[in-house]
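Example 3.2
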Amino acid sequence: MADVEQRAAEFRKKVEALKAEVGKVVVGHRAVVEQVVTCLLAGGHALLEGVPGLGKTLLVRTLARCLSLKFSRIQFTPDLMPADILGTNIVMEEAGRRTFQFQQGPIFGNLVLADEVNRATPKTQSALLEAMSEAAVTVAGKRYELGQPFFVLATQNPIEMEGTYPLPEAQLDRFMFKIEVLPSELGDLVTVIDRTTGAAAPEPQPVLSGAEILEMRALAREVPIASHVKEYAARLVLASHPDTAETAPAAKKWLRFGSSPRGAQALVLAGKIMALIKGRYNVSVEDIREAAYPALRHRLIRNFEGEAEGIRADAIVKDLIAAVPDLPRRVEKLLSTE
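Structure, written as C-alpha cells:
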C-alpha cells in the first residue's frame, strides 16, 4: 500500500511540474491544460476548438517543448493530400538499380499537431483514422507501426468559413476529448500582453520523457473503480441514446444518436487520471461527471429540432447528468419497492 501511495504521489508531482512549465508560456486556460494532460496520460487524442488567436497552437507547441518527444506539425489546407501526412514511396537509384524506399510523413512523431484540421478535405482527414485508432499506418499495402507514446492534438475553428470541412462523426469519435478554448479573462489577458510585449519571453524546460509517460499511463490503468461508479459511467452513456430503456428526457427530445462505447471508455480512463491528479487512488462519481463534458460533447448528434433550436451539446450533457442517478441499479430497485 505504501508503494502505491508513493507512486500516486510521484504521478501527481510530475503532472504539477508539467502544468507549471506549460503555465510559463500559456496564461490561464487551466481547465484546458488539465484536460489536454489528462488525454495525454490516458493514451487518447484531443480536439481543441476555439476562435483564432486564443493560443491553441501555442499550447500544443509549448507542451511539446515540455516533453522529450518527437514533435510534428501538420498545417491542414484544402490542397493537402493523404500522402503529405502518411508519407510515400520514392524511387531510389543506386549502382544502376532502382528500388522503392518509404519516406515517412509527419504522422511519424510522438506528439502530432494537426493544425486547423477542418480546413482539409474529408479524404485527407481520413488519413488520421488508422493512426489514431491503431497507432499504425498502411501505405501501398504495407503496415508501419508508429512509435509510442503517440498523441494527436488537433485544432479547429468553429466559425463557419469558406474552405472548411466539418469532421465526420467517425473521425470525431476517435478523439477522447473535445476541449473548448474560451477567451481569456481580464487579468489573464493583461498578463499575456506583459509577457508578449516585454523584452524576453519565458522558456519552458522538458520535464517528462516518453518512458515516464508510458509508466504513468500504466499506473493510471491500475487505479481501481468501484462497480457502482463503472455502472454510472455506462448509464450516462446509455442515457444519451434516444431509444433505450435508460434514455434521458433531453436525449429523447434533442438527439438523433448518442455516444458510442468509446465515450464510456473515455469517462472511465479520464476519471482514473483525474483521481490521481487530485491525490486519490480510486475513481469517484464526481470524476465521471467532470469528465462527461469533454468526453461526450462531440459524440452527441442532435436531431432536426435540436439543430433548429440551437441546443448546445453541453446543455444536453448537463441534463444527462441531472437525469442519471448515481445509485446502483439494485439499490434503486430496492428503494422503489419500499
